[in-house]
Design brief:
Strand content: 25-35%
Distance between the termini: 39 Å
Radius of gyration: 20 Å
Helix content: 25-40%
Oligomer: single chain
Structural class: alpha+beta
Number of domains: 2
Shape: globular
Bound molecules: coenzyme A
Number of strands: 11
Length: about 325
């Protein structure tokens, strides 16, 4: 019988090929989401919040599992920074599943994160791993549905994202003619600090996903063209500025996708703007479930969705 001894240890550079093979085997690969070294480096090494905490499980001389905690700061309305990590790229090779590898890796990573002073872990697991997280003390924050509106491409049948300027242009000039600044939205809940470094990495440096800016008079939307089930969608990824409805309106006027989709936190002005511009929650379409695990007592109710102030760009898993 094969030796099923499993070793858990930190990721080293030489593991990269084995880890990418593992991700392909466990999570799959599509033409739009290829498991490339560049994507892995963008996510885990170039993130301005810091390098990911990476552990691997080794068995039978190959990589059997990966535990990746991506560093991600969140800021409270009072201005305090929470040092968080996002559990992503969760994978145990099909030949090694149900042997406790996910559990062992996660427990080891939690110990490491606690020792590193991390305040909280959050993530959006799929149903396969969700049960495992809840059994390890994660709390369910809530379901994030999708809001959508038909796009003009339903009429013209053609998406032309190339008519929109690159999001990265917007990022190299934080105060363009519109008077827009990339400063954060007003404090409403736990949110990602949208520093210039974050924006440049998030929207300007992704190896494959292309983001475009759509300017309105005083506000700007950042959008990502995508193809889902053979249809062109435009993801309303983020909105900046004091008049979000202007930016969302400009997206609707200019896009040529089949539909526009996005998500903003309940009660946020961005969500109200999307509703005013014809985007509606699509009943029954549950895209993500947010779960979290504080690693120390925190002075806010992280189990309540109202505590969080997220937009699509904070949750898109790329
Ligand atoms: C999800 C995944 C990471 C679990 O890894 P694993 O090493 O097999 O998990 P473990 O053996 O440590 O199981 C830990 C717990 O997770 C839960 N779990 C794991 N696989 C499960 C499954 N197929 N169905 C239901 N619960 C499951 C169980 O609660 C399990 O505890 P138990 O075995 O005591 O009942 C693995 O199945 C995988 O890589 N799947 C494909 C990729 C994927 O879906 N990743 C998650 C992306 S969010």
């Amino acid at each position: 019988m094969a030796d099923r001894t499993i070793t858990v240890r930190p990721f080293v550079e030489d593991d990269l090929d084995g880890v990418l093979d593992l991700l392909r085997a466990a999570l799959g690969e599509t033409p739009l989401l290829r498991r490339t070294p560049e994507l892995f480096a963008w996510k885990h090494f170039e993130n301005p919040f810091g390098r990911s905490l990476l552990l691997v499980a080794e068995g039978e001389g190959r990589i059997a599992g990966l535990r990746a905690f991506m560093r991600w700061d969140l800021v409270t309305p009072g201005g305090d920074v929470l040092r968080c990590v996002r559990a992503v790229d969760t994978a145990t090779h099909p030949d090694f599943q149900r042997l406790g590898i996910f559990r062992r890796l996660t427990v080891a990573a939690l110990e490491e994160a606690t020792a590193a002073g991390i305040d909280m872990v959050f993530n959006t697991p799929n149903p396969k791993s969700g049960a495992g997280y809840l059994s390890m003390g994660w709390v369910e924050v809530g379901d994030l549905g999708v809001m959508a509106a038909p796009g003009r491409g339903l009429v013209s049948g053609k998406a032309t994202p190339d008519v929109l300027p690159e999001a990265s242009e917007f990022l190299t000039d934080p105060t363009p003619a519109t008077g827009l600044s990339v400063s954060d939205r007003p404090a409403r809940g736990l949110r990602t600090p949208r520093s210039p470094e974050y924006l440049a990495w998030r929207f300007g440096a992704h190896p494959t996903a292309r983001y475009y800016r759509v300017d309105a008079r005083s506000s700007t939307a950042v959008v990502r063209p995508n193809v889902r089930s053979g249809r062109r969608e435009l993801v309303l990824s983020d909105v900046f500025g004091p008049e979000p409805a202007q930016a969302v309106g400009a997206v609707h006027r200019r896009n040529r996708a089949a539909y526009v989709a996005g998500w903003f936190n309940t009660r946020s002005p961005e969500r109200s703007a999307a509703l005013r511009r014809g985007m509606v929650p699509i009943p029954g379409v549950k895209t993500l479930t947010l779960v979290a695990k504080p690693l120390r007592p925190l002075p806010m109710d992280v189990a309540s969705l109202a505590t969080w102030d997220f937009a699509s760009s904070d949750l898109e898993l790329l």
